[in-house]
Amino acid sequence: MTLAVFRRYSVLNTGGSSGVTWGRTRKHLSPQTGRHAPSMTTASDSEAFSPVQGYTRCGRRLYDLKTPSLSTVTPTAMSSFLNFVYSQIFVALPYPKQDLTDQTIIVTGANTGLGLEAARHFTRLNASKVILGVRSLEKGEGAKKSIEESTGRSGVVEAWRLDLCSYESVKQSVQRAHGLQRLDVVVGNAGIAPSTFAMAEDNESMVTVNVISTFLLGLLILPKLRETAAKFNVQPHLTVVSSEVHMMAKFEERKNPDLLKTLNDKNTTDMGDRYQVSKLLQVYCARELAARLNKTGKSDVIVNYLNPGMCHSSLSRDGPFFLEVLKFFLARSTEYGSRALVSAATAGEETQGAYLSDCHVAQWVFLPRRHCCEGFADAENRPAPMVLDEPEMQQRVWDEVSAKLESIRPGIMASV
């Protein structure tokens, strides 16, 4: 959830954030244990849909599609809001207990927020090397010291300069990473959400940082992850920290034939929608990358993406007073939200190409109307209805992003 969401949806819609978090410590939950809330919808609940009669069944309620009511107005928005509230209040995230002995892990945007707390968990869980990808080495060294003091482990954490506003910085970091003995996990957590339009490299800054550079890093580092898989007989992870707000993107730019060019147009840009759009683009790219890896038989690396929920973060420092109130009552602590990152980065192959929320493959508790009857019983991940309804858009986004990446680093797509 971000300030951008409130500009459009006010109190109705909320969501998760990437690399930036809000929230308070949930004292009613044990910091050492967690449980998953049971699903409120079953296969039998979602069987009936009759376009002739004009009714749809969601859970055990039957909605009249012809009569305007709260249940038929903006169903996706209402579903997103209900799932958000349910998740924030009732779902407990498990405290990470995995053994990460010998593993090397990179976390971008790790000097603060979710990235810092995830790196702290990775260090505590006996990782051999934890690399903090940060824009400021001074802040990175401060984060390193904090982790060492809290975990009692020294000689594990390293701070590397990685500025996603610079393609050259990304390339240099990847070159350095290829010199590692092994690389088991890359968590693409870094993200920005400025309120004003600005360019970084040759794209609008949120597109550059949250999308282009994130996948430039991911694709350039794939060969190293594959090398680790083959050499050590493990299944490495490329995990992208996305957000539930991708479900709220209007993405009007999709109506134009040249997506990236349109996103770069300051005169037509809706900055209130841009963060949500950047998260949606992440979802498209992560899904397509995973699908292509599966198709080409190169799925030895797990690619997944996650929603950490609403947590504390400086991202919302310019937000309205209502946002502060909502954060006080509903938001997760930074540590609590970081558990979602650790869970995704250590999850099994069933999460390949999947959208994870609350530390498991996401399925709606309160389903958008038009998806109530679409195979809820299976393990299909549930990203935004726009993603499910417009599969051709995923291909369009991938084509443009991959062409962009190829222009930045010729030959990069050969790793897919």
Automatic annotation (TrEMBL):
Residues 22-46 are annotated as: Disordered. Pfam families: adh_short. PANTHER family: PHOSPHATIDYLINOSITOL-GLYCAN BIOSYNTHESIS CLASS F PROTEIN, PHOSPHATIDYLINOSITOL-GLYCAN BIOSYNTHESIS CLASS F PROTEIN-RELATED. It comes from the Eukaryota. GO terms for molecular function: oxidoreductase activity. Keywords: Oxidoreductase. This is Uncharacterized protein.
